[in-house]
Design brief:
This protein has 227 residues and is of the alpha/beta class. It has helices at 3-11, 27-41, 53-61, 99-107, 140-150, 186-194; strands at residues 20-23, 47-50, 65-66, 75-80, 84-85, 91-92, 109-116, 131-135, 155-158, 160-161, 164-165, 173-178, 199-202, 204-205, 211-215, 221-225. Bound molecules: ribulose-5-phosphate.
Length: 227
């Protein structure tokens, strides 16, 4: 079985009728949304806040009712994927480019579940995935210069797409930043990056995951809870 599907299906067990559910973005979240759609077809009554246009489209296709944060700014449970998970359940997210809406919806949520396959588990953040930093198009060269001058990244590049820069659902660009030996202090790094003028958000999700569900090929799941 696909471990992402295993994790996505397992997470639906935490969803009950009456909930407002935050829907993540990415290939693991696709499995979750499809599985939720199947439960909705059988009578589950939920409203959902999507974290991207892609997740909104899929949710509509499978019959999940969508609601905006303007209509309801409290989300009961958000379920989303991640690019890296460390042993204390700190995360890097945003390789799918939806980090800003994902962080807003996660912050609005009472409970947060992360669904991953085993390849996402790391001993230290920043050792496998780059850290995505969402920047406004007007200021990205300045942010890039500031970051290069810090001399803490082994690689730093504007994310490309189709011959130009990748553009997020919010109309911004993404700088993918690689650290030579991981990120020793994720909380400090998250806050430092977000204070740079031109940075909208970054992919460090510190103390946000309550539960991480790791799906395995044999259909089993490991459920990790933040201490
Ligand atoms: C999108 C994300 C995704 O959750 C993350 O990239 C994981 O994606 P996938 O489930 O496809 O591995 O943060 O912005």
């Amino acid at each position: 079985m696909d471990p992402k599907e295993v994790a996505g299906k397992k997470a639906t067990e935490y969803v009950n009728s009456g909930m407002v559910v935050g829907l993540g973005t990415g290939s693991t979240a696709v499995h979750l949304i499809r599985a939720l759609g199947e439960r909705v077809a059988k009578g589950l009554q939920i409203q959902a806040v999507p974290t991207s246009e892609a997740s909104a489209r899929l949710a509509k296709q499978v019959g999940i009712e969508l609601i905006s944060l303007e209509e309801n700014s409290v989300v009961d449970l958000t379920i989303d994927g991640a690019d890296e998970v460390d042993p204390t359940l700190q995360l890097i997210k945003g390789l799918g480019g939806a980090l800003l809406r994902e962080k807003i919806v996660a912050a609005a949520s009472t409970h947060r579940i992360i669904i991953v396959d085993p390849s996402k588990l790391v001993s230290e953040l920043g050792t496998r995935a780059p850290l995505p930093v969402e920047v406004v198009p007007f200021g990205w060269p300045v942010v890039q210069r500031f970051l290069v001058e810090e001399k803490i990244f082994s690689d730093l590049r504007l994310r490309p797409q189709g011959g130009g820069p990748f553009v997020t659902d919010n109309g911004n660009y993404v700088l993918d930043c690689r650290f030579p030996k991981g990120i020793p202090d994720p909380a400090k790094t998250e806050s430092w990056l977000n204070h740079l003028p031109g940075v909208v958000e970054n992919g460090l999700f510190v103390n946000m995951a309550d539960i991480v569900i790791v799906g395995h090929e044999d259909g089993a799941c490991r459920v990790m809870e933040r201490p």
